[in-house]
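anyone seen this seq b4? input:
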Amino acid sequence: MKKIILAGNAITADILLFYLRQDSRYQIVAATVDDGFEAAGNIDEVPSIPLSRLASEFAPGEVLIIMAMGYNDLNRDRASLFERLRAKGYALESYIHPDARVYSVNPIGEGSIILPGAVVEPHAQVGANTMVWCNATLAHHCKVGDNAWIASGAVISGQAVIGANTFLGVNATVVNKVSVGDFNVVGGGALITKDTKANTVHLARSAEELRYSADDYVKFFGV
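predicted toks r here
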C-alpha cells in the first residue's frame, strides 16, 4: 500500500480523499499546504502540514504526493506547488481511478489525475499535473498539456490539442484537430471549432429567459 500526502486541503482534496479511502492501493497519511494555510482547509481527520515542515515529518522516499489543489489563477498555484515539491525530491503520483478507462499506451503525465468515468482513448496524451474530471472524454490522438484542468463531461475530440494551464469547463467540446492555446478559459458548454490564441476566454452564451412562463410553455409546446 502506497503512503500518500495530499497536496492541498480544501474542496478538491476532500473529494480526492473520498475516492482514495475506497482504493486499497493507497493510505492517506497527511496533507501539505503552503505555510499559513494549514487551518484554511477542512478535510476529515487528515492533518495538514506546512510545506516548510514536510521533510522533517515525511522524507521524500517515504511517501508519494497526489496533487489535490484546484485551478486557482489558471492552475498557476497548482503548478507552483507541484514544482516546489519536485524540487524537494518528492515523487508525484499519477492517480487513475479504477473506474476510469485509459486505453492509450502513452503514459499519463507525472502527477496527473484521471477520475471515474473519464475515457482516455488510444494514442491520447496527457501532460504532467493535469486534472481530468469525471466523465470527460479524451479522444484518439488528442494532446492535453501540462497543468490543465478538464472539467466533468468535457469532450476533446480526435487530434485536438489543449494548451498548458488551460481550463476546459463542464460539457465544453473541442472539435477534431483544433488547437486551444495555453492559458485559455473555455466556459461550460462552449463549443470550440477554430484554433484559439493563448490567454483568451471563450464562453457559451447563457440560456436566456423566455417570455413564456414554465406552465404556458408546457401547455403549448410540451417538454
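The domain at 95-202 is CATH 2.160.10.10 (UDP N-Acetylglucosamine Acyltransferase; domain 1). The first strand starts at residue 2 and ends at 7. kinda curious what u guys think
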